[in-house]
Amino acid sequence: MKTFVCTTEQETQSLGRRLVRSLPVPSFVALFGDLGAGKTALVRGMGALVGSDEVRSPTFTIVHEYETNPQLIHFDAYRLTDAEELFAIGFEDYLAQDAILVLEWAERVQEALPRERLEIRLFGSGDDPRTLELHAIGARYESVVNAL
Predict the structure, then answer these.
(1) Domains of the chain
(2) If you ran DSSP here, which 8-state letter would residue 129 be given?
(3) 20: which residues sit within 8 A by CB, 6+ positions away?
(4) Per-residue pLDDT for the chain (148 aa), expressed as one digit of tens each?
(5) Residue 122: enclosing H or E segment and its boundaries?
(6) Which of 31, 41, 106, 143 registers the highest number of CB atoms within 10 A of its CB?
(7) How many Å apart are CA 49 and CA 72, to the nearest integer?
(8) Distance (Å, rounded) from C-alpha 23 to C-alpha 28?
(9) What angle do CA 48, 53, 56 make, to 5 degrees?
(10) Do the Cβ atoms of 120 and 96 come closer than 8 Å?
């Protein structure tokens, strides 16, 4: 595990840019945290580095696919009641893609998470600093965490 403290949204986005540089393709990143913890800001930074300045929370659509290099696929499980709803939109097909997949509100669909993944737990809200704990689940993600 590695912990980062970000005092501004820009620092959270910067960490997202650093993170996406280290991720192998394909990758799966599971984000855990309350409303306002900085999940979408982190993904916005990831998107900015791979070619999209339009990352926004896919709360109402569940998934946004960005035509980036590598491709970024951004899920939001906030409105889902269980993992079955995620699988109903073709989640298994997404997992098979050669892309970076990021899932916000992973705590709501834990049974759907792939066996190997990077988990990021975000704490804080409002004007408070954000604490981000990165947990590697699987050897390929240990190198990602160590590289940051």
Answers:
(1) 2-147 (3.40.50.300)
(2) P
(3) 45, 46, 49, 50, 72, 100
(4) 999 999 999 999 999 999 999 999 999 999 999 999 999 999 999 988 887 777 777 667 889 999 889 999 999 999 999 999 999 999 999 999 999 999 999 999 999 999 999 999 999 988 899 999 999 999 999 999 999 9
(5) strand 117-123
(6) 31
(7) 11
(8) 9
(9) 105
(10) no
The length of the chain is: 148
In this structure, the dihedral spanned by the alpha carbons of residues 63, 67, 70 and 72, taken in order and rounded to 10 degrees, is -20
Longest distance between any two alpha carbons in the chain, whole Å: 38
Q: Phi and psi at residue 53, in whole multiples of 5°? A: -95, 10
End-to-end distance of the chain based on CA atoms, in angstroms? 11
